[in-house]
Amino acid sequence: MRQPLVAGNWKMNGSRASIEMLLNGLKSGIGAVRVAEVAVCAPAIYLSDVQSRLQGTAIAWGGQDLSAQASGAFTGEIAASMLNDFGCKYVIVGHSERRAYHHESDATVAKKFAAARAAGLIPILCVGETLEEREQGVTEAVVKRQLDAVIELEGVTALADGVVAYEPVWAIGTGRTATPEQAQEVHAYLRARVASQDADVAAGLRILYGGSMKPDNAKELLAKADIDGGLIGGASLKAEDFLGICTAAND
Length: 251
Ligand code: PEP
Known about the structure:
Elements: E1 5-9, H1 16-29, E2 37-41, H2 47-54, E3 59-63, H3 80-85, E4 90-93, H4 96-101, H5 106-118, E5 122-127, H6 131-135, H7 139-154, E6 163-166, H8 180-195, H9 199-204, E7 207-210, H10 215-222, E8 229-232, H11 239-250
The structure holds phosphoenolpyruvate (PEP).
Residues 9, 167, 172-173, 210-213, 231-235 line the site of phosphoenolpyruvate.
C-alpha cells in the first residue's frame, strides 16, 4: 500500500512574514490529516525558518532544486549537503519551470536526482508534456524520455528512493487541470514503464499529480488507482486550501 504524499511547491512566492503566517496555519490544521504524508518545498533562503517552525510536527520540508555538483565554484547554487544541513527530507528536481527557464536537460535532471539520492534526500522527479506535445500525441514519448534519463543513469532501483510527479505543463498555474482520466492514463503508463523493468519498484513508486490541483478537484484525482498524491503550486500558498487537499487524500 502506497502512502499518499501531498507536497507543496511555494516557488518564488512569499516573504518572511507571510511564510510565518502560512506555517502557523499549517501547524494548527495538520492534526486532522491522518493518512497522507505532507511536505512543503520552500525557497532556499527560508529553509532555516521552515525548519525551526516545522521541527517536531507531522509536516516535512524540502528544497525546490539543487545542484548536480557536491560543492565548489558554482556561484548561486545549493548543494544537497546544504539542504541536509537544514533538515530537508525532499527536493524537487526537473520542475518544468527549471527545464524551460534554466534549460535543464533530461541528463542534468538525472544528475540532480542522483545527487539528491546520494545525500539521502528524496528527489521528487517532475515529468510532463507541453500543450503542443499533447496535441501532437507524443505525451507518452516525452514522459518516457524524462523518466528513462534517470533509469539510464542510476538504474531502475534508484526510483525506489524517489517520487515521480506527473505535471502536464499546460495544467501548471493555468487553472486548467487534467481530467482524472487523462492523469490516470499517464500515471498508469509511467508505472507500467517502470514495471517492465522492476515490478516491485513500480508497485511501491509514488506518482503524484501536479497541475492546478485544488481542494475541489483533489478528491476525484486522488481516487484514481495510480495517483498517489499531489504536487501543489498555487493552492499550497494558502493553509486552508493546502490542508483541504491533504484532507482529500485521507478519503
Ligand atoms: C507546480 O508548479 O508544481 C504546480 C503544480 O503548480 P499549480 O498547482 O499552481 O498548477
